[in-house]
Amino acid sequence: MNDDTLLQVRDLRIAFRVDKKNTVEAVKGVSFDVPRNSTVALVGESGSGKSVSSLAVMGLLPPETTIVQPGSSARFDGRELLGLPVAERRQLCGKDIAMIFQEPMSSLNPVFTVGYQIGEVLRRHMGMNGKAARARTLELLAEVGIPDPALKIDAYPSQMSGGQQQRVMIAMAIACEPKLLIADEPTTALDVTIQKQIMELIARLQEKHRMAVLFITHDLGLVAEIADRVIVMRHGEVREEGDATQVFGAPRDAYTRALLHCRPKLDERPLRLPVIDDYIDGRLAPDAVLPQRTRGTGPDDTPLLVVKHLAKSFWLREGLFRKREFQAVRDVSFTLARGKTLGVVGESGSGKTTVGLTLLRLHRATGGSALFDGQDLLAMSDREYAAYKRRIQIIFQNPYASLNPRFTVGQILLEPMRIHRIGANDAERVATAHHLLKRVGLPEGAFHRYPHEFSGGQRQRIAIARCLTMQPEILVCDESVSALDVSVQAQVLNLLQDLQDEYGMSYIFISHDLSVVKYIADQVMVMQQGRVVELADSDALYRNPQHEYTRSLLAAIPRGV
């Protein structure tokens, strides 16, 4: 281990106990270095072993189910971490090594203020008293760009936006000025503008504090902008390692080349997005020219849903007797044509999800109309709307939360058909369920399995199959691919496109990923603070955005690849 190397991982092998007899090997002989004052990116899909490797360094893997194979080594600043006593590891990993996790609300304690939680790090590791810890906490909140630190220090995590929560996590991580910062997918669920701010913040803090950063992600566009070195992992093994310019400019491994080609690009719109196996199996050459799809709306399109002056307000309690109106959606109007896709983009809090939920009457509209085949969905009684429920469905963002864990996949698919009396009998419904599972690319045996037995991408396919049982005409996709790896994302987008081509379905596609929206949408609606600031065909909007806010969103897209 030379003086320039801060973290040295050698032949790391980690397995997990599945039951008393069986184990599964998650990391298979991984080796890499993190030099001082540099940024190294670990890149790969879910299940590649990248997060497990970082958790092993931090000592956060569950000891009762984890097997670290003999010969594995992780040395930090010359000191072996694996097998280190708990007390020593805790002191080291709180002070010299820090970690930012993907989901801040899973890491921040909801019952303590953010000031208390940052101060706890300072009290435990730096020995500061309460007054000194509070003063340093205010400095840290200001350093990470939290507005009004004197007010926010006493706020609870739930009172802050997702971007602010992530900034609090960063403040906690840098509180003791660590030598190594591990960032595990810290921007995956954030809007492009907030993502850009967080990445610039990490880069600025790295330069100021002379930290090394181990950045874990599946977003290659992001990696190309920040990393000095890149390590590509798959199935627990390192497939390629090198300088970022070499890995992205001339990748040697077929898997790396496949990852680079799977993500939707702003300047291309292939009929079908390529997936990993297309390149691994040699079905597509890296320089293959793919047939392109045209998008847009025209005067001959048949309007299916006409929304006029849609409004939705929430009432927030202030004190015992007062309430304040918060206008989440203000005067939103658009037309969705049959067989077309409307993309809805904007930052968190822009109102885009509220629009979708209000159209499905999961929120009660406070104004406007939504004419579906000439009938106003928002003015109907619950009894009248029951007949329309099956015609407009939604795919939620989180497939882990939207499927009942106590139901088998078969029960999940059969339930809506029974409620809406689709099919003459259960035998016919079971046959429909099997057909839909095959249609979304799942094996017939999935019918008898539970959601926890499937990956995130497979669960999203189950959610899509459940929607299809209703034979809907409109499908609202609420961030339905944002948490998926690029290859799984490509598979789901291809599936949605196939279904639209086959059944003529219309989509309202809500997303903060502008590259994905450019690929799938015929028309794009940009929202800011509850209002529509721009609405145009996708090619025209991306080519010549008219509103300053749209231009700022497009400018924030990572363009490293």
UniProtKB/TrEMBL annotation:
Q: How does it sit in the membrane?
A: Peripheral membrane protein
* InterPro entries membership: AAA+_ATPase (IPR003593), ABC_Ni/Peptide_Import (IPR050388), ABC_transporter-like_ATP-bd (IPR003439), ABC_transporter-like_CS (IPR017871), Oligopep_ABC_C (IPR013563), P-loop_NTPase (IPR027417)
Q: What is a single Pfam family found in this protein's UniProt entry?
A: oligo_HPY
**Coiled coil: is it a keyword of this entry?**
no
Q: Which organism is it from?
A: Massilia phyllostachyos
**GO molecular function annotation:** ATP binding
Predominantly, its location class is: membrane
In which family does this protein belong, per the annotation?
Belongs to the ABC transporter superfamily.
- Output this protein's name: ABC transporter ATP-binding protein
